[in-house]
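dumping these here so i dont lose them again. two proteins, back to back, each one seq then structure tokens. dont judge the mess
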Amino acid sequence: MTDETKDKKDVILHDHYHDGVDRRGFLRCMAWAGTGALYVMQGGVLKSYAMGAAPRVGSGKSAGELSFVQISDSHMGFNKAANGDVVGTLKAAVDKINALPVAPEFILHTGDISHLSKAEEFDTVDQVLTGAVAKDVFYVPGEHDVLNDDGKQYLERYGKATNGTGWYSFDKKGVHFIGLVNVMNLKPGGLGSLGPDQLEWLEHDVKHRKASTPIVVFAHMPLWSVYPEWGWGTEDSAQALSYLKKFGSVTVLNGHIHQLMQKVEGNVTFHTAASTAFPQPHPGKADSPGPMVVPAGELRGLLGITDVNVVRGRQALAIVDSSLK
């Protein structure tokens, strides 16, 4: 029995709702989210569906007033054995976006747009994304986007109207979006950090907003401790999250670890996205993180996009992951 098969078996052991999803397992501090799962939070109660049983996005059960897509870790310029065609897999992600039953209004890219912060790498990503039905793209930087120049090129391209090293917020149809930067001052071991200036800005940004406002935070590195031994977390995220306690619905989206994981803690749902470039090992399942070579026929099954559907008034966000395969 492979580790992956064993993990799935463990999930089904607690399938009290007979829908293929384990709530007790899901609500543990850490739980794996399988590709193709749909999560809907309604009035603070999480509902989950196995992909085959999920209400189709756009149906009466899951239709919302705002739909957007998250992509992450395109690593344009990467050309090693784990994926020799990152342009092709990013284009496949765009095809996936264009085929969604509900056209998303915009795209969030949660960083590592490029692999080595080269101008031509950013240019290629910009060009590929012009083929997406959603024309607006909101970015936060990954550590690969700020190499050598402390993020100067990134800010010139994507962060002209942002604060500090690139943090900002905006509103869409009653939802407040907050883009945070946690890759500019990495701590020993690779942990991300937000820093006092950004934390002060965040506190002010949300201080006077109504508690009923749905909040979506997006950043490159996780705002929860996925695996600190590999630097998969953010040192001062607890202070940031303390400012969000009053809100009934908070969704935190990130990339960086190149795999799907989800955690629910109080009012906050944490969700990490797959990469469009290459997978990484599960935490602790290898000597170190990094590009993971898998059989060619399996690669696109480990890459993908995340589609988020917001149902205003019911505090519901439906998150659907789909692979490129």
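---- next one ----
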Amino acid sequence: MTQVQTTTPGIQCWDAATLKAEWDAGRVWLVDVREPVEYAEERIPGAICHPLSKFNPAEIKCPDDKVLVLYCRSGNRSYRAAQQLLAAGCAQVTHLQGGIMAWKQQGYPVERNPKAPISLFRQVQIVAGSLVLLGTILGATVSPWFLLLSGFVGAGLVFAGVTNTCALGMLLAQLPYNKRAGQSWQS
């Protein structure tokens, strides 16, 4: 078992083996701070979701007989969530070093949902890329006017990058399967 104290007093890092041993002993209350779509796609069994984007330390109520352990994909977001809990008055916070990636590398179990939607970012990439490809093909084979479609999508992506607002992302977030997964476009 490896428990490492970070450079921030009060934040402790556990490796995957330590978490597994403590989890098996029933001494862990596990909180996933990734976004809901990531949580819906796969998670460590028994974890609950409190995404960092909406993280409210007041909502984290760890049972007295358990150790609160935070995790995310790689350990960066869980470390930031741990800092927020410390700032809110928690004396000791633990997070999984390396996140769920380290957990999976050790071969520990995860719950997967093959029907979970892919992230909004990837959906935007697929739709925008398909429209650009379609506009290019139709522009080369049918009429050059179809190149305007590719240009329009390109201009929209530039606008989205400059303003951090994506109309396509907001539109896709309204689809029922994205709403069920709790996906939203955040600017």
